[in-house]
Design a protein that fits this description.
Blueprint lengths: L1 E12 L3 E3 L2 E3 L3 E4 L6 H13 L5 H4 L12 H14 L2 E11 L9 H11 L7 E6 L5 H4 L3 E12 L1
Parallel strand pairs: 5-6
Antiparallel strand pairs: 1-4, 1-7, 2-3, 5-7
Helix pairs in contact: 1-3
């Protein structure tokens, strides 16, 4: 089974920037109901989609006070438990974050470790890539950040 996920968040001054479970130093952060971790949200959508379990909005509605400022890594752990309850396990994750600044390369290994730990995976099964939007569009103007994720799943 394969799942695909996408997420996008607006960037604004005075907000915190969390990507892949790592808080980054930045003048701009994500505007979101939870912690706004665009990468973890894309991965969660890919995981849920792989088993036709809906999307993160279904499981973690942005109208719920329970999820206000929620830690996305904790949410990811809940999604992982749903997958395990269905009798499936993750083969691998491939993901890409699109952001102009700050540069993510120095943080990729920490992000991979946080996600792998949350999903009880070997870090080799978690791929995270980063790119810019070459100053084009809302991402290029540093108005937002996006992430894409693909997961491969197997039944136990």
């Amino acid at each position: 089974m394969v799942g695909f996920g996408y997420d996008v968040h607006t960037l604004a001054e005075g907000e915190t920037l969390v990507i892949g479970g790592v808080t980054l130093e930045s003048q701009l952060g994500t505007v979101a109901h939870s912690d706004g971790d665009v990468l973890v949200h894309a991965i969660m959508d890919a995981l849920l989609g792989s088993l036709s379990l809906g999307d993160i909005g279904l499981h973690f509605p942005d109208t719920s006070a329970e999820w206000r400022s929620a830690d996305s890594i904790a949410m990811l752990k809940r999604v992982h438990q749903l997958l395990r309850n269905e009798g499936a396990h993750i083969v691998n994750i491939d993901s890409t974050v699109v952001l102009e600044a700050p540069k993510l390369r120095p943080h990729i290994d920490a992000m991979r470790a946080r996600i792998a730990e949350a999903l009880a995976l070997d870090i080799k099964r978690v791929s995270i890539k980063a790119t810019t939007n070459e100053r084009l569009g809302f991402i290029g103007r540093e108005e937002g950040v996006a992430a894409y994720a693909v997961v491969q799943m197997e039944w136990d």
